[in-house]
Amino acid sequence: MKVDRGGRGTRDEGTPTGIGVATGAVLVVGATLLAAALFPSGELPGRLAVVALTVGGYAVLVPGLRALAGVAVLAVACFVGFLVNRFGELTGASAQVWAYSAVIGFAALLGAGCRWVRTLARPTGAGPAPDHGAARAGAPDAQLSPHSAGSDGRPCGPVHP
């Protein structure tokens, strides 16, 4: 469900949540493998940056907040379980490691905020009415009806002030 500018819920005809989560899961697993290949095991900030940038980029591109939440939780689990600890262990991690995970959540929030700002900047209406040659007709402040211009652009109907 999307929320439009008036605060009303509208039907989201975009990508289903399950497809969005699956796409995000593939991206997170790829980012986890890339971070493990690029940075040694003691280099947590570098590994965290790769995963957080991936989640933030995903948040900018995917409109579903439910899918984003699922992908962010999966990214935190992959970071703590595979990049900090070994063999997918989520227990026994220090508080500092879980604090690092807040960066992933922050990246998700920043990406979602960026997407929200982009939707506000996008025009929602049909835009201004086309001119259809009103200035050439000698009436610069008049608007012609949309059906009053001929195929050559000259007005063929009455001019409406």
Structural summary, described in words:
- Helix 1 runs parallel beside helix 3.
- The chain is built from 4 helices and 2 strands, in the order ββαααα.
- Helices cover 54% and strands 2% of the residues.
- It has a two-stranded antiparallel ribbon with strand order 1-2.
- A hairpin with a 5-residue loop joins strand 1 and strand 2.
- It is an all-alpha fold.
Broad structural category: mainly alpha
Look at the structure and give the mean pLDDT: 79
Please indicate the percent range of residues in DSSP E strands (runs of 2 or more): under 5%
Strand order of the largest sheet: 1-2
Tell the overall outline. Answer: elongated
What is the rounded distance between the termini?
A: 42 Å
Number of strands: 2
For the sheet with most strands, the description reads: 2 strands, antiparallel
Helix content: 40-55%
Helix and strand string, N-terminal first? EEHHHH
Count of runs of 4 or more consecutive helical residues: 4
| Radius of gyration based on Cα positions | 26 Å
